[in-house]
Amino acid sequence: MTASRRVQRLIGLTLGVLLLSAPHAAAQLDTGAIVGAVRDSSGAFLPGVTVTVTHEATGVTQTTITNESGQYVFPSLRVGTYTVSAELSGFRRVVHKGVPLSVQDRREVAFMLEVGNLAEEINVSGRSELLQTQSADIGNVVDERQLRELPLLGRRYSELAFLTPGVVQAPAGLTSRGEDTFFNSNGNYATWNNYTLDGADNNSFSTNLQERSPQVVQPPVDALSEFKVQTRTYSAEFGKAAGAVINASVKGGTNEYRGSAFGFFRDEAFNANTWENNRSNVDKGKFDEQIFGFTLGGPIARNKLFFFGDYQATRTERALTQTATVPTARMRQGDLSELTGSMTAGNPFVPAGCIDAANKQVSPACFDPVAARMVNLYPLPNVPGSGFFNNNFLSNGILNSDIDQFDVRLDHTITGSDSIFGRYSFQNTDRLEPPVLEDPVASGDFSSDILIRGQNLALGYSRILGGTMFNEFRFGYNRVRSDVTHLAFGIDSATEFGIIGVPKDPRFYGGLPNTFIGRVQRIGGPFFRPQFQTSQVFQFSDNLTWTKGTHSFKFGGEYRRDRVRYIDLRSLNGEINFSDGRYTNFGFADFLLGLASNQRLTLFHEPNLYMNGFQIYAQDSWRLTNDVTLNYGL
Known about the structure:
mainly beta, 7% helix, five-stranded mixed β-sheet
């Protein structure tokens, strides 16, 4: 996340004119609102009506009174199914049951009271309208049933964002950075999206998506009640990002003990062999994946205090088919006649008698002693064919990935006006990637030993202030650590092979300098390894909703501190280049002679960056007439 991204939408203006029948409250990050008006049989608005909402799964209730315009609003309700009732002395009590409420939903429930005995009750039921008439935002809610039943590769909930119109997969250059879902929204880049979890910031503040995901933690699909993707015209409180807003909500406990256990398994027996393996007469590689876990939730004190927890483990062992171009046995002896092109002689840096340009030969007596050792790190070609050709070597090393994650949530209704909640999420990934050249010192690519550890904490306190005001305070904290080391980290290969001048600093030392050689696979450790990053975000926010007459105002502010410490430097262990054939016109011949075209070494330094941010907003939903509502904010 860059500074420009953080301020790009600091001030957003949302203006929508909707055909509505009642005003609505502004959206909360991970909650919804139920709004409406109460009239009598003549159509006149009724003030002073007692309206009660009851969360059907927990029995938690809230009560409010309609204002002088007959309007009521419950601005911050936990997602789920509700019973909504209205009663006034001299009128029959009316009850609406089975009212669904989703993340950032603004559900209208209108009442018409008939004259009669209060003891008499009218029950209203019916299918909820699919058209959302209480909000101008554009997006899609993925509910618990879809999360549970739709097939997901890797069980990543964010894959279901593609059900939203305008959402497409991000370009390959970005999606290749990790296994999480990267998507663009309405032409906006994937890195401009804003992820929240239970109202807390869930965006990494790292410098280069080193943790392989834009999210700090990614809860299992079984742990989520639902999530919503908003792509356009969201309210002013979301003025932080230019892309989509993705709000996910972890399940909470109910008045019944409920749990689940699950397991998913994949095996190479169900997979076909790869084209590369078939061409090289190599057997199908291993592919074992197991995903298993459980959820459990219920009451600690009925109608008051609830808990929910989940755990998921993912174990993957997968053969990774990779190809490389390696020198043949003849090339290792200095015979480069298998290479196309002409060898040149006469460069003053090439000792006399070391090059037979006409026959493309390098005298073994002239081999650089370091190169003579390093060349033996290359495996021999194993792809059928004669002579030297590209991609003449195939490896099927095993990629190991172990992921452990859990979430714990508590919800407590202190009184009818006060409630608190807390949720902590943890995710740990250990990933070991096989090198294309099979030897960890030879490496040949960016294969790494990776540790990623994400943590996210959300705390909230909400209070109803009289019948017209509602205040909610949130604290959010996230931390993600990502350690990415080359496979030879800590191995003193430079001394073993006779390379001098590489600092032996235990913070980064190990392996061989990254060595580029013309026409063959590079050798040595990756030039951008090791990488260490720890990013943290501290977030304090407060939101006040005030219903006055036909206005529903909302004001809010946020203070946040983003911090990142990182080591992300190129060539800490050195870099040597033999790629352009500067001395003999053959890069491999230059390598055998030890004549590099350039070298690089970066001095160590560790930045410690932080940024403090203050953001405020104000918005209003104003009912101009019975049929028109104006939404605006800054």
